[in-house]
Amino acid sequence: MKKQIIVITGGTTGIGFACAKYLLSLDYTVIITGRTKENLDTAVFKLGENCVGILSDTSSLSDIDELVLKIKSQFGKIDGLFINAGMFKASNFEETSEELFDETMNINFKGAFFTIQKFIPILKNPSSIVLNTSIVVFKSFANTSVYTASKSALESIAKVLNVELADRGIRVNIVSPGVTESPIQKKSGMSDEAINNLLDHFSSTSPIGRIVQPTDIAPIVEFLLSDKSQVLRNEKIIVDGGTTL
Ligand SMILES: NC(=O)c1ccc[n+]([C@@H]2O[C@H](COP(=O)([O-])OP(=O)(O)OC[C@H]3O[C@@H](n4cnc5c(N)ncnc54)[C@H](OP(=O)(O)O)[C@@H]3O)[C@@H](O)[C@H]2O)c1
């Protein structure tokens, strides 16, 4: 069987990186993106020769156009797309600036929206799209209003796309991680002490007794990308170790 080709946006660290590693171990061909060259080079070096890295800022529509052109010329069509690139910065509602609002929405929602739109011509029939949202969509956390809005917006389009793209053989499902140990916490501007407190809290209150790791999410994403889940549409798999029960 021909190797399945999967694109992961934001595959340089954390969840995207773990998914790339897992898919490569199962003999998929994986293309990852990221916006920081150093992180991309490091990730591609670690992931090996079956992984292709392309520098692409998901919040830039011209970058997305270029990304699609590059992938089309090198690979033709692809089997799956994991919409994973994202960022989080904590801010209480009253202090959320227009700049943070735009940055968050541009990366987490607008970028995701137009990435999906622009990839449609190079998605095979059948193919699978997986959206990485978050438990914030259904459980409230203080200081996450704009992040929550961006992830809720992303989740909301899955059902529409499943109807509009059905005749092209494209299906869309959702992975909804709980708090997962990854570089996102440090990038968010949290202090080491605040990160440790957060991770300790979610470890001690979780039914699994530990924090969720990116490697816990990878097999779930592979399932949603693979033929094993071919009859699922708009399905959401919550990967939080039971913390929201
Ligand atoms: N960790 C959690 O607790 C958690 C929980 C629920 C959902 N999520 C979601 O999971 C996804 C991955 O997060 P993570 O925890 O794995 O964090 P992470 O390690 O910071 O990974 C984020 C990835 O997205 C990339 N990225 C960010 N902005 C980008 C942009 N404008 N263009 C292209 N790539 C961009 C990053 O690349 P650079 O290094 O180049 O910036 C990196 O590869 C995010 O969508 C996040 O919202 C995370």
From TrEMBL:
Superkingdom, according to UniProt? Answer: Bacteria
Pfam families attached here?
Answer: adh_short_C2
InterPro entries in the record, alphabetically?
Answer: NAD(P)-bd_dom_sf, SDR_fam
Which family is it part of?
Belongs to the short-chain dehydrogenases/reductases (SDR) family.
Q: What is this protein called?
A: Putative short chain dehydrogenase
